[in-house]
Design a protein that fits this description.
The complex is a heterodimer of chains A (206) and B (556). Helices cover 72% and strands 0% of the residues of chain A. By secondary structure, chain A is mainly α. Chain A is flat, with a radius of gyration of 23 Å. Chain B has helices spanning 9-14, 23-33, 37-65, 76-110, 119-138, 166-194, 207-239, 252-269, 272-286, 293-306, 322-350, 359-382, 384-390, 394-424, 430-456, 473-503, 541-546. Chain B starts with 8 loop residues before the first helix and ends in a 10-residue tail after the last helix. Classes of the chains: A mainly alpha (206), B mainly alpha (556). The structure holds copper (II) ion.
């Protein structure tokens, strides 16, 4: 295409560009759309907060001890997965698999905690999705978050399978990295949900 | 630069190298399993054209009913179903897919890549969009389409008012096709940011690619709230939730906010890629570079961000508050600044150029002349007192059809006439193009011009009939007449596509003497696009190749 003759001007040398790779940009773009999705659910939750004429209200139904436990699970899982990242970057595959499995366990613990909490809400407080506006918005927001945790646990299990078959290495760890980004995102969403639903939404204060 | 003699994609399909499969089955197999961005792009475009015909027939039926006052061609409920399906079809299954399809075909070629970043995700996006459309139409088989209007105001979508499964099909269909749109947006962002040819920095992107990038960003912000709102409708209807159930404290007002937070940016999703196409066509047919590239680029970004804060101009009549009315009116007027910048830059590009009125340029000029009028009626509607009078009247219908047909459709035709030779290796007939253009141009003005008048005379949108003493009959008859003049133009277009694909003049690699990378490869391009990945030094790499003595990179 380019005919380089010395009578013609020759272009300046190319400067190599640094930046994220396609898979990383894809994950960033996906997470942006997820932010928009969860923002909508959170705005809706706040819109309907305190609008109910029938109980139970958030202050009556929601109890903190269990939720603080599940929150600790999720936040510490973010720390573990970060440790796993550092491990694979230093080529320590066994440590990676160990920390990664720990992350999965904490994710599952979170889901079990949510299940116990929901059982309590449904059986003891008769709070269902059709009960009142609180039930409607609460189960939608927390449910979609739980669905994302479930998706994360499945994705992490796949990566664990890859790692155990020695397909996640220092030079080939993009799948682990992307899943870790996703997991951090799910964690951050939970912190917002925790603050909005369990701290602010119950009428303030712990 | 020229490789093997141009082969038709369909011919490739029948002799797919292996020599095992022939005929229709083989062709279907190739196209349904394809992950090639060019084939997926063409599938998107074909899907849109089919839905365009369906949506057009729905429009014609409604115009038939409105021709005479007190006509009884359609039952009221049928009429409601038709305008719901017409709007839904044209926005979700014609407008968005045809632009995504063109983007799919062109973006990798224009940035010198061999495919999109995620080819299988790309195929997934197309098929789920198509199945979303089929799901919405499947409601006809369940005893009638939804009759809720395309923006489906609550509480009309609640079980109490919309019995039967049609509304569920509508919500589910839009939900899954929205997932397809988000998949396409993710793919565009990743492709454009990470797959550009060596040397093609962000400042050297072809302008169409730049607008596709920002369209994708806008999709990422605007579609998920709609997805969430559709989920809420489905939860209300299927699980007894109360989001929009006003008897139990739900909010019809919330739906309007959520829907229009998607709905207004959607307008820009439907017009930004067209701005990009126009910005490719006008320079080539004026033989000048795009005037004020940097300003055009900045204006695109400004439109994306400003237009995400204007949605409630669709809700002035809801009774928000005077403060909110003023804020949203002011923000809406603000959008006209970057749009105006674009408009004057296009005029400046043409100014003093050697203009060739080939078919793409003809449609581009149709776009310029009509879009400016649609923009002006938009400014009228953004002012609150006028909107109080004209909201939900035929004036509004006239306005947004002026923008969507005069803007999106004319611009898309410009793009299709411009790139069809690349896609097929054949030129479209210029004679048919002129027939199509003038029938469409005249028919379009005659259809939607009188709507502004009937709207100002007080005719509300979505009524299935009207009394003779209202004085609306003449304007409705002109509108219907206009629709009848438009109809053959679409038939000519489809005929032109088919006939030229079979017998059109061979196009060669670069029929328009253009400057971007897609014209450096064969027409149609081979499956791998480029034999050798190009190296780019300016915004017009092909100009540099044609004029090594005076390359563009000296000036950029
Ligand atoms: Cu708007």
């Amino acid at each position: 295409m380019t005919t380089a003759t010395h009578t013609f001007p020759s272009p300046p040398p190319l400067v190599a560009e640094q930046g994220l790779c396609a898979a990383q940009w894809g994950m960033v773009a996906f997470l942006v759309s997820e932010v928009a999705f969860f923002s909508t659910l959170i705005v809706t939750y706040v819109t309907f907060l305190g609008q109910d004429t029938v109980g139970p209200t958030p202050a009556e139904a929601l109890s903190l001890p269990l939720v603080i436990g599940t929150t600790i699970c999720l936040v510490s899982s973010s720390v573990l997965i970060h440790g796993a990242q550092l491990a694979i970057e230093h080529g320590r595959q066994r440590l990676f698999s160990f920390l990664w499995a720990g992350t999965i366990a904490l994710g599952i613990a979170f889901l079990v905690g949510t299940a116990v909490e929901w059982r309590e809400l449904i059986v003891d407080h008769q709070l269902t999705i059709g009960r009142n506006l609180f039930g409607t918005t609460y189960y939608t927001l927390v449910g979609f978050h739980g669905l994302h945790v479930t998706g994360g646990v499945i994705a992490m299990t796949v990566v664990l399978g890859l790692a155990l078959s020695r397909n996640v290495t220092r030079d080939n760890c993009i799948s682990a990295q992307l899943v870790a980004w996703y997991w951090h995102f799910v964690d951050v969403v939970w912190i917002v949900v925790f603050l909005v639903v369990y701290v602010g939404g119950r009428g303030g204060g712990l | 630069m020229s490789l093997a003699p141009p082969a038709h994609p369909f011919e490739n399909a029948t002799h797919d190298g292996s020599g095992r499969r022939f005929g229709l089955t083989a062709m279907l197999h190739t196209w349904t399993t394809s992950v090639d961005h060019k084939q997926i792009g063409i599938l998107y475009i074909l899907m849109s054209l089919v839905f365009l015909v369906i949506g057009g027939i729905e429009a014609l039926l409604m115009r038939w009913q409105l021709f005479f006052p007190r006509a009884e061609v359609l039952a009221p409920n049928t009429f409601n179903q038709l305008f719901t399906m017409h709007g839904t079809t044209m926005i979700f299954f014609v407008g968005m897919p045809i632009l995504i399809g063109l983007g799919n075909y062109l973006v990798p070629l224009m940035i010198g890549a061999r495919d999109m970043a995620f080819p299988r995700l790309n195929a997934f996006g197309f098929w789920i969009t198509l199945f979303g459309g089929l799901l919405v139409y499947f409601s006809f088989a369940t005893g009638g389409a939804p009759a809720i209007g395309w923006f489906a105001y609550a509480p009309l979508t609640e079980q109490t008012f919309a019995r039967g499964p049609a509304t569920d099909f509508w919500a589910l269909g839009l939900l899954i096709s929205g997932i397809g749109t988000i998949a396409a947006a993710v793919n565009f962002v990743a492709t454009i940011l990470a797959m550009r040819a060596p040397g093609m920095t962000m400042r050297k992107l072809p302008f169409f690619v730049w607008t596709m990038l920002w369209t994708a960003v806008q999709m990422l912000f605007a579609l998920p709230p709609l997805t969430a709102a559709l989920v809420m409708i489905l939860f209300d209807r299927q699980l007894g939730a109360h989001f929009f159930d006003v008897q139990n404290g739900g909010s019809a007002y919330l739906w309007q906010h959520l829907f229009w937070f998607f709905g207004h940016p959607e307008v820009y999703i439907l017009i930004l890629p067209v701005f990009g196409m126009i910005s490719e066509v006008i320079p080539v047919f004026s033989r000048k570079v795009l005037f004020g590239y940097e300003f055009m680029a900045a204006a695109t970004v400004a439109i994306v961000f400003i237009s995400m804060g204007v949605w409630a101009h669709h809700m002035f009549c809801v009774g928000m508050s005077r403060t909110l009315d003023l804020v949203f009116a002011a923000a809406s007027l603000l959008v006209s600044i970057p749009t105006g910048i674009k408009f004057f830059n296009w005029l400046a590009t043409m100014f003093g150029g050697r203009i060739r009125f080939a078919s793409p340029m003809l449609f581009a000029c149709g776009f310029l002349s009509m879009f400016v009028i649609g923009g002006l009626t938009g400014i009228m509607l953004a002012s609150v007192p006028l909107d109080f009078q004209l909201s939900d009247s035929y004036f509004v219908v006239g306005h947004f059809h002026w923008v969507l047909i005069g803007g999106t459709l004319f611009g898309t035709f410009a793009g299709i006439y411009y790139w069809y030779p690349k896609m097929t290796g054949r030129m479209l007939s210029e004679r048919l193009a002129r027939w199509q253009f003038w029938l469409l141009y005249i028919g379009f003005i005659l259809t939607f011009g009188p709507m502004h008048v009937s709207g100002m005379l007080g005719m509300p949108r979505r009524i299935y009939t009207y009394d003779p003493d209202r004085g609306w009959a003449l304007w409705n008859q002109l509108t219907t007449l206009g629709a009848l003049i438009q109809t053959p133009s679409y038939a000519i277009f489809v005929y032109n596509l088919v006939a030229s694909w079979r017998n059109g003049t061979p196009a060669g690699d670069d029929p328009w003497d253009a400057w971007t990378l897609e014209w450096t490869t064969t027409s149609p391009p081979p499956s791998y696009n480029f034999e050798e990945l190009p190296v780019v030094h300016s915004r017009r790499p092909l100009w540099d190749a044609k004029h090594p003595e005076d390359p563009d990179w000296q000036y950029e």
